[in-house]
Amino acid sequence: MRIEEKNSLLNLPNILSLLRILLIPVFLALMIRGKIMAASAVFFFAGFTDVLDGAAARLLHQKTKIGALLDPAGDKLLMTSAFIVLAIPSLNSPHIIPLWLTIAVISRDLFIVSSAFALYKLRGQKTFLPSFWGKSSTVCQFIVLVLVLFFNSFQISFPYLRLLYFLTLALTLLSGAHYFYIGFKIISVPKKS
Predict the structure, then answer these.
(1) Among 14, 34, 141, 160, which residue carries the largest CB count within 10 Å?
(2) Sequence spans of domains, the chain
(3) Mean pLDDT across the stretch 3-32?
(4) Can you say how many angstroms the Cα of residue 128 is from the centroid of all Cα atoms in its chain?
(5) 45: pLDDT confidence band, cut at 50, 70 and 90?
(6) Distance (Å, rounded) from C-alpha 89 to C-alpha 112?
(7) HEC assignment per residue over 79-111
(8) What pTM did the predictor assign?
(9) Which residues contact 28 (CB under 8 A, 6 or more apart)?
């Protein structure tokens, strides 16, 4: 594979990541108009593009630097948008994601991004591998979004969602603390001269 192809923006995985990002305003517009079922379908399809772009990148050997940025950016933008819009009481029933959970999720992500930037500037650290706790937190957050959208689409009351909110909060805080620990370890090692 030539270098130009390897770093090309227009390959299938990158197009799928861009599509996911472009679907976010559609999802939000449908939510604001009260079309929860249609918004849910867009959200599920956008989430499915995440599976497809990863598979395409591996199978077609089309991993690129821009794709390494677009894919997680698309995921975070989609999930953050969904957390915010699902925390607005006037747009959702019977389930509303608690504001405290939305704030915790977004704060953790902002903390991770700003810490990664600081580590890059201070130490030249370019790679940041996801941890078990980070992946667990993300999976739990995604499950919360899917269930709230599903139950709201069919107007099903499900009292046990509150337990999932607390589990998601615990994993979000634990993963944030774990990433802080990893960053502290990196920063505390003496810099090579």
Answers:
(1) 141
(2) 1-86, 93-193
(3) 84
(4) 15
(5) very high
(6) 28
(7) HHHHHHHHCCHHHCCCCCCCHHHHHHHHHHHHH
(8) 0.90
(9) 81, 85
